[in-house]
Design brief:
Layout lengths: L1 E6 L4 E7 L2 E2 L3 E3 L10 H6 L2 E6 L4 H12 L4 E3 L5 E2 L2 E2 L10 H13 L5 E6 L2 E7 L5 E8 L1 H11 L19 H26 L5 E5 L3 H7 L4 E3 L3 H6 L4
Helix pairs in contact: 4-5
Amino acid sequence: MKLLVDAGNTRIKYTIFQAGKFSTIHTVSTGNLTPELSADVIAKITGCLIASVKQSDAILAVIDWCEKHNIPIQQLRSTEHHKGLINSYPEPRTLGVDRWLAMLGAMKLFPSTSLMVVDAGTATTLDCISQQGKHLGGWIIPGIALQMSTLFDKAEKIHGEPVAINNIALGNNTSMAVSQGALIATLGLIEQGVKLCAEQGLKPHVILTGGNADYVSQHLVLEHHVDPALIFHGMSQYC
């Protein structure tokens, strides 16, 4: 039984992985995992795998929690290759481990297929993988909420607040224009990625994950798949 911990930019998610299956995925803002895990479950955990984009206080608290419960820890890092995935970065460890694991998860779910993995969270990342498992590279832009908050907070003459978008349209007030623009920028990222792949003879299967995946999915006309547990599928490749 393994404890899998995914520490993103704004929250910590964790689950138990046993016999090829995940338990309920929990989300916390601190490193205290005890409230959701019974003493019986904790006693059966044989190791903890941690994926962290930064060494935050919360992650240090998770490490401390594991040490108090005598649970061995493995902090995952991007490598040159793993389970058929080949890293395109000249310095493999500099590729964000969240992107690396999401790609591993996508390859586990859709083997021998060209893929486009979009993680729509605090940042929105896009990564393309060939049918042979080679990472072709990717893009990073601010996430939808970050795009909007940056304009409202930093642009002196732009005033408004985020609004939910039901249909793609031209905005007729500042709040709507910014909110539509942030969504359109994200959709455009994906559409341009598919177009670029097509120019290279690829027809990637698009997979969405991250906190904004469902929101983006509502408006994305391209055929795609949504999996909120994609990073955990990737982490399971180390179990």
